[in-house]
Amino acid sequence: MDKFRMMFQFLQSNQESFMNGICGIMALASAQLYSSFEFNCPCMPEYNYSYGIGMLVIPPIWFFLLGFVLNNNVSMLAEEWRRPLGQRGKDPTVLRYMFCSISQRSLIAPAVWITVTLMDGKSFLCAYSMDLEVSQFGNTSGFSEEDLTRLLAKIPCKHLFDGQDVLSREAATRYLRCVSQAFGWLFLLLITLTAFMIRAIRPCFTQAAFLKTKYWSHYIDIERKMFDETCTEHAKSFAKVCIQQYFESISGEMRSFHRQRSDDSDDDDDDDDRHKSDEDKLLGIRAQDDMNKVLWNWHTCKPALSLRKYDVSGEANISASTGQNGLINGHAHHEDSIQKKEWAVYYSKV
Questions:
Q1: How many domains does the chain have?
Q2: Where do the segments described as Disordered lie (predicted)?
Q3: Domain presence at residue 339
C-alpha cells in the first residue's frame, strides 16, 4: 500500500511529465493502430477520394478530441472561463496559456498519425489515383473518358486492376507513393520548424508575463485540487459525526454501560480524540444549508487573491485592499467578530 501511495504522490508532483508521457503513448498507439489496420480502398471513382482523405483527416481529429478528453485541465479551463466574475477577476492570458498547453499535448498523436499515413502512401494513392497524367504511364488513346476514370480508380487494388497491358500500374503506384512520402517529410519538417520557432521566439518576449500566466495556471489547478480534497474531508467528517450522534441518541444507555465496563482501558480516550479531530475538520460548518451556501458562494463569488496576515494573538489584520462593501477575502466582516481591546497606559513621574 505504501508503494502505491508513493507512486500516486510521484504522479501528482510530476503531472506535466506524466501527461507528456500519456501523449507519447497515444502517439505510439496511433502508429501501431495504423500498422495493424487493413487499408482497403473501394477502387470506385465515386468513393476513392472521400475514403482516402477521410482516413487521413478523421482519425487525427478523433485523437485530438481524445487528448482533450483525457486531460483533466479541460474541465478546469471551462469552469474558469464560464464562472461568474465575483470577487476575483479573470485573466484572458491565463486562459489562453492553459488552452495552448492543452492543445500542444493533444496535437502529438494526430501529427504522428498524419506522418505515418503519408509515409505509408496507401491513403494518398487511393485519394489521388484518378488525378494521374495518363500519358506518362501508358497509351490509352482508345479509351473513353469514363473507362479511363474507372481504370485509374482501380490502380490501388492490385487484384481488380485489368489494364496492365495499357497502363503500367507499378509505375503509377511508385510515383504516387513517392509524392506521398515527400508530403510526409515536408509535414514533419514543418512541424519541427514550428516547434523550434516557438521555443526560440518565446525568450524574446517578456518573461515576466509568461511566468505570471504559468504561475496562475498552476495556482488554479492546485486550488481546485485542494478544494476537492477539503470537501472530501469535510464530507467524511460530517458523515462520521452525524452517524456518531445518531447512534449516541439511539443507544445512549448501551454506550454508558460499555463505558463503565472499560474504565481502565484507553479506548474511550481514543474515540474522544478521533471525535475531536472530526469536529475540527468540520471547520464550523455543521448544517446542510450552510454547506450548500459555502459551495454556492465558491462558485459564484470566489474570494479575492489577497491574503490576511495574522499576528501573534491570532487576530486578523484587515488588509488595505478591502473594498467598500467590507469584504475580506470574499467573506463579509460581521459586527459580531472579535473586537480589539483598547488599553490606557499611565506613566508616573516619580
A1: 2
A2: 255-279
A3: no
CA-CA-CA-CA dihedral for 146, 151, 157, 158, to nearest 10: 160
Phi-psi region of 22 (alpha: psi -120 to 50; beta: other; left: phi over 0): alpha
Mean pLDDT in consecutive groups of 10 residues from the start of the chain, 350 residues: 50 55 69 72 90 91 88 84 85 89 87 89 90 74 78 84 69 91 95 89 80 89 90 91 84 58 51 67 87 89 81 47 40 42 41
Instruction: Kindly report the pTM of this predicted structure.
Output: 0.68
Residues 64 and 125 in one domain: yes
Amino acid letter for position 210:
F
Domain-terminating residue out of 180, 204, 228: 204
Helix boundaries (H) for the chain: 2-13, 15-36, 48-70, 73-82, 92-106, 108-120, 122-128, 145-153, 169-201, 207-250, 252-261, 267-281, 288-300
Q: What is the C-alpha separation between 134 and 124, in angstroms, rounded?
A: 17
Alpha carbons 18 and 264: distance in angstroms, whole number: 52
